[in-house]
TrEMBL record:
Species assigned in the record: Corynebacterium appendicis CIP 107643
Name this polypeptide is given: Acyl-CoA carboxylase epsilon subunit
Top-level taxon: Bacteria
GO molecular function: acetyl-CoA carboxylase activity; propionyl-CoA carboxylase activity
Region annotated Disordered, chain positions: 37-72
Length: 72
């Protein structure tokens, strides 16, 4: 198991849940938290749609870049 945290995972503000209900809710919230961490940790990021590729420098506007269109 993990080490106990200084702050509680959640607090009950209304009602009187049983120990079994609290244990079940704790397990569900812990599983959801671990699943969220697994989705966001590492892995392959597809940067295809990124507006500026990381490998290239910033795009510089050049109005005379295609003056000689007949060569293309």
């Amino acid at each position: 198991m993990s080490q106990p945290t200084a702050q509680p995972l959640f607090t009950v503000v209304k009602g009187a849940p049983t120990d079994e209900e609290l244990a079940a809710l704790t397990q569900v919230l812990t599983d959801l938290q671990q699943a969220a961490k697994a989705r966001t940790s590492g892995g392959h990021r597809n940067l295809w749609g990124r507006p500026t590729p990381r490998e290239h420098g910033p795009v510089v506007f050049n109005p005379s870049a295609f003056n000689s269109q007949t060569l293309f």
